[in-house]
Amino acid sequence: MMTLPISPAASALIARGLKLGGPASRMFAVLNPANGAHIADVADRSADDMHAAVARAGAAFPAWSARTAKERGAILRRWHGLVVDHADALAEVLTLEQGKPLAEARGEILFGANFIEWFAEEAKRVYGDIIPPHAPDKRCLVLKQPIGVVGAITPWNFPSGMMTRKVAPALAAGCTIVVKPAEDTPLSALALAVLAEDAGLPRNVMSVVTAAQASEVAGVLTASPDVRKLSFTGSTRVGKLLMRQCADTVKKLSLELGGNAPFIVFDDADLDAAVAGAMATKFRNAGQTCVSANRLYVQSGVMDAFARKYAEAVRALKIGDGFASGTQIGPLINAAAVEKVDGLVRDAIGKGALAVLGGGRHPHGGNFYQPTILTGVLPGMEIAGAEIFGPVAPITPFETEAEVIARANDTPYGLAAYFWSRDIGRVFRVAEALEYGMVGANEVLTSNEGAPFGGIKESGIGREGSRYGIEDFVEIKYLALGGI
Ligand code: ADP
Fold first, then answer.
1. Are 472 and 462 spatial neighbours (Cβ–Cβ below 8 Å)?
2. Lesser CB count within 10 Å: N end or C end of the chain?
3. Looking at the DSSP assignment, which residues form a beta bridge with residue 264?
4. What's the pTM value of the predicted model, to 2 decimals?
5. Closest approach atom of ligand 1 to CA 389
6. Domain 261-441: what homologous superfamily?
7. How far is the CA of 241 from the centre of ligand 1 (A)?
8. Which residues are catalytic?
9. Regarding the domain delimited by 8-257+459-477, which CATH topology (the fold level of the hierarchy) does it fall under?
10. Regarding beta strands 149-153 and 176-180, do their DSSP bridges make them parallel or antiparallel, or are they unpaired?
11. Where do the domains of the chain lie?
């Protein structure tokens, strides 16, 4: 491995992760999105390898599920402790392969660790039920049992947090799990697996299978009758594909898919707070989150004031390498992502939208894109319906509450929505009317382990985190006792 701009602790974690990931006959390169530098070569696993991993997870299931919840929780707690202890090194690995600013990466590591801690505790609270019987000599019981082997496919935008949010509840419930991380960011997943092993998690209870091309190995996860559940975070396009593939085995599914989050500013809003919220939700992770504000609607009375303050804040953003101090926005994940975002912006401008700020690739070149504000975005433009996944904010004025609710809901997506108002009646009306799984009122959500994360409509199925998150990993068994 070449010398990397990271600490010896981070290099050591990468080296151990690569060893755990194993050598393979085929390898693929992981690149630093900030400069294209080669970081490492990772095993490019085949369908046969995935079959073997699923078989090993199946073999590990009886012993793991037979452990007490307290024992499983104790291992998760140790894993949590190790992730926190290694937060700095894990953050470096994350910034190196993903590009986000180092402080944000550290935030993601701790965010991800919180799920491990939470589900270490929740392991002990998977309660069943006793139902009043329908006859005197009968008893009705509900047992909750781990679902079995789980397949997880995780994305590159939160390679650490999205993995722990799936793995921790699965392990807590007594499932074993095979994780296929995104090809752009496998090192964070491997580093987490190293620490899980150090925490005493038995081999094969969790394994990480890396591959350059997702479809071949993922096809094994979806087709195998031994995989009882698939948990996926990624695009709606791939989510639909996986859902179809899972039909033949009637697999349980959790899907966290794309969003098209509206961000609504009413004329009674605290404008400074709304601007700060719009900055956080639009530009965190360079806009590459499924809950990023995708379209800003501002009531006409405050449009000018909001747009001026927002532009001022956006203009001050510092773009650069995630390791450089003060960087607020790093590069996009890869060249294809830049091309996609730029295509949406060019289409909009070509059809009459105005780039108030930015509007193209950043002078840094490579995968950097300028923070951009667009006005005059109309329904016929591609950007109006697409998930942008980049640092581009289209702002549109609106007149009435009814009009903006209709526009906000006019999408197949239903993940996150935000609005700003100080009128308590409106807060309830709008929160209830928005067809979304998560609504932030004077708040940009800041997802956390205790809250249910997930979408409705084409944004997904199921909830992650919170006490609901573990339910996705257990089966309900009705036990009817007679002859009492
Ligand atoms: P994005 O468009 O944000 O990269 P994707 O849905 O393509 O999101 O990727 C999310 C995860 O899905 C990654 O782990 C990726 O490797 C995986 N993936 C991509 N295409 C497929 C596919 N055809 N089958 C299964 N997994 C896939």
1. yes
2. C
3. 297, 419
4. 0.97
5. 3
6. Aldehyde Dehydrogenase; Chain A, domain 2 (3.40.309.10)
7. 10
8. 256
9. Aldehyde Dehydrogenase; Chain A, domain 1 (3.40.605)
10. parallel
11. 8-257+459-477, 261-441
Distance 334 CA to ligand 1 centre (A): 14
Q: How far apart are the first and last CA of the chain?
A: 68
Which residue, 436, 437, 442, 441, is CA-closest to 453? 437
Protein residue with its CA nearest to atom 19 in ligand 1: 214
Residue nearest (by alpha carbon) to ligand 1 atom 2: 235
Burial of 428 (0-12, 13-18, 19+ CB in 10 A): exposed
261-441: same fold as 8-257+459-477? no
Residue with CA at minimum distance from ligand 1 atom 17: 214
Give the ipTM.
0.97
Per-residue pLDDT of the chain (484 residues; tens, 9 = 90+): 445 679 999 999 999 999 999 889 999 999 999 999 999 999 999 999 999 999 999 999 999 999 999 999 999 999 999 999 999 999 999 999 999 999 999 999 999 999 999 999 999 999 999 999 999 999 999 999 999 999 999 999 999 999 999 999 999 999 999 999 999 999 999 999 999 999 999 999 999 999 999 999 999 999 999 999 999 999 999 999 999 999 999 999 999 999 999 999 999 999 999 999 999 999 999 999 999 999 999 999 999 999 999 999 999 999 999 999 999 999 999 999 999 999 999 999 999 999 999 999 999 999 999 999 999 999 899 999 999 999 999 999 999 999 999 999 999 999 999 999 999 999 999 999 999 999 999 999 889 999 999 999 999 999 999 999 999 999 999 999 999 9
Q: Is the CB of 258 under 6 A from ligand 1?
A: no
